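Complex record, two chains
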Amino acid sequence: MIGQFLVHLAFAASLVSIATYSVSIRRRSEEWRMIGRIFFFVSSVLLGIIAVMHVSNILNHRFEYTYVWQHSSRELSFPLLLASSYAGQEGSFVLWALWVVFVGMGVLWYARKYRLEAAVMVWYGAILAFLLLLMVAKNPFAYVWETYAADGVEVGMIPPNGRGLNPLLHNLWITIHPPMLFLGFAAMGVPFAFAMAALLRRDYQRWTKIAFPWVLFAAGVLGLGIMLGGFWAYETLGWGGFWGWDPVENSSLIPWLIAVVLVHTMLTQLRTGGLFKTNILLAVASFLFVLYSTFLTRSGVLGDTSVHSFVDPGYFAYVLLLGGMIVFAGASISLLWLRRADWQRKSLQATPVSREFWIGVGVILLLAITVVILVGTSWPIFLELVGQPKVAIEPSFYNKMTLPLAILLLAVNAVSLALRWKVTPTDRFWKQLLVYGGGAAIATGGIAIVTQFTNSIMLLFVFATLLALLVNVEWLWQMLRRRPLLIGAYLSHFGVAILFIGVIAYSQFQQQTHLQLPQGKPQTFGGYQFTFLQKEQVEKELQDREKYEYHIEVRTKSDRFVLKPVLFWSSYNNWEAAFLEPGIAWGIRSDLYIAPKAVEVHGQPRMVQLMKGESTSHPFDSTWIIHFVGFDMSQAQGVQGRAAAVRLGAKVRLVNTVSATTIDTTVWSTMRGKRWTPEELKIPGTSLAITLEKIIPDRENLARSKVSLALYSYDVPESVPREVFVAEITIKPLIGLVWIGTVLTVLGFFVAVLRRWREIRRRPQRWAEVSVNGQREKPEAIVEKHE
Amino acid sequence: MQRRLLIGGIAILAFLIAGYFALDESTIEYGTIQQARETGKVMQITGQWVKEQGYRYVASADQFYFVLRDDQGDEIPVVYQGAKPNNFELSNSIVVRGKILGDTLRATAILTKCPSKYEGTQQAM
């Protein structure tokens, strides 16, 4: 009750904050601005309380709350409990809003320094208000009896345990990837707020310098978030790759690409004064596409076109998400329209031998890539909207379309770095290009010969990548020696080139096979020998899972190591099917990737079914008689609930008719849902064995229930049930470069943040002056002096 | 200036044309078993796994077999090159991408959709 009330209150406070800030702009009043600020703080503090309550509900297992029941359980560890606070839709809005509050505090303080507080906080506060409105609709504090009233759940009913968290999410990455992504989303609101403030104030130059560190920060964090997602998919989820052009992946890539474009166009404006319309538009668009991304992934419109499961949020939330997008887009478009008089100004004129010209070309290419991804992702929805039959887009579309654009982009990057701003002496440019181009061509030729690689478009890709690599290495080297703080851009571009080398190697040279590995029988592939040694149960203390590491020994000519892919059963899906995790040998030259597919039991033991009192002779040694004496339920007591693992026994008397030996013992098996895990019973002094496969209950007359026994002998190898580990084995050359490349790219952004931050802090007064209606700043003052 | 516009225009036009063809080629329609049979095209078929018929994974061939019932109630055996997808049993609806050859649906992709609102909520609690 109180939680929901606080959500409403926080929403109201955020609205008051927006309203008073707007009044303060109109009246140029410090008092009103102060009220706006106070209400933003009130709203923030309330949200902080809401977040604390939400998390404490989860930590204290308050399963009367629907959210807590749906997404957590008593078995979860502390980090996973924290993660479950944003695993569901309601909780993810809480996390996002929390980041908006933190970032908002920073923005408020920062914007004040440049006398932009009210103009910026009106917009940034609107983002917070929107998220709070979503939380009003998708209330994280709903009780189970409210949510499931139609199912007749009684008021006051408290479920003993929750549904839990999907076992696929049980790892470290869920504690890092989503928070990073949402921080990125929160940060993407900042350039938007500054751009809208610039429109309000009709001040189109100053804001670029002020907002630039934020744009870089947003691009860096969102990039990191996306990258962590890819790494997660590769490392744990066993999807084999790091990028699948899935709508969910695409929808976060689109705003990121626009942010990257914005970095370049803002830089151009800072250096030349041009592109100011473009920058406003892009800053607004980057945020609108964050909203679009949220809409795509949260509204259920993508339905069955994605591997990510989507939850239908209900009609109200759908309308809110759509409405929010329309309101933000509408507000920006109307403001742009109001300012149309300012748009008549001369735009950037650049000669083809200047850096800004080629940055412009690169920007167009990057936007083209963005459009490709946007169209591909939205196409199914678009067709449905215009009443066409439903369709899906194959991922090959993206590869086909982006490949030529990426080649051009890399080449353009190299060319632009070989040029100077404004104008470059052409002879020097051609000389440089000849050196780099020659170097890249020779290297490409070398690679083609060594690898016998003849795909011409791919060779072109290799060439463009190497060209970009060489140019950026040269710049990096120069900058590191002279002005290390300026390496950001070159580091990022160098990272992109490295990333593409990884992508090329991975997409062209990976070797893959499907192997069945019976225990102890080696198989070879790609110069490796694989042997399934044994399985080992891990995390035994946790009752909700039955988890095995399959020890796969890998031998090369000179080396031997053991990989441990994982198969596990979980109460989450009633023990019905295994969850899989790959085993990976990380390497500099290549990764060896073992993705489990299934485990099969081969071997033909004789199966017999016995009722209490019945007996049978062992089929592989008829001197042994097996009497089924009765069930042993002694260890089945006191266990209940979904997570229950019930250990059941069949008491047997084993009698040898020749030696007149009698053994009284019990065969055990553990039942989890429909899954039985038998324990082998060896008849002492023989090679005979028995397992209890399952119990077949007779519901009418429990006394007539049967046991199903498997009987086999180690003297007859084909009778012994043996596990066969079935896996897809892939050798992925140079895939490590993908990760190194992305890390460097992201790192570059953060170096640039540092640099821009220091630069602007050195002379804050200068930027605090209100320039006359966008009159051009003198760029000389901020021109980098390294050329 | 004129020349620059011309080059830009041609480039954009080429991009749009290429994009249109690529999109057209990569578009897969949703349909029913009957439609897939009639057209012989690759389609996405939404339906359910017929649980009573079970499923089978043949490790030696790396093929996964099951029977699909589409929303029209038609049933067809499916052969999928690969292992059983994650969450297969959990899903209340699946989307199979593939083409009908003879009497079987040759699947190239299977998407499993997990139940969003857990059915049988009360029992579970």
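Note: The interface with chain A takes residues 15, 18-19, 22-23, 25-31, 44, 46, 57, 59-60, 62, 82-84, 86-90, 93, 95, 97, 111, 113-114, 116-118, 121-122, 124-125 of chain B (CB under 8 Å).
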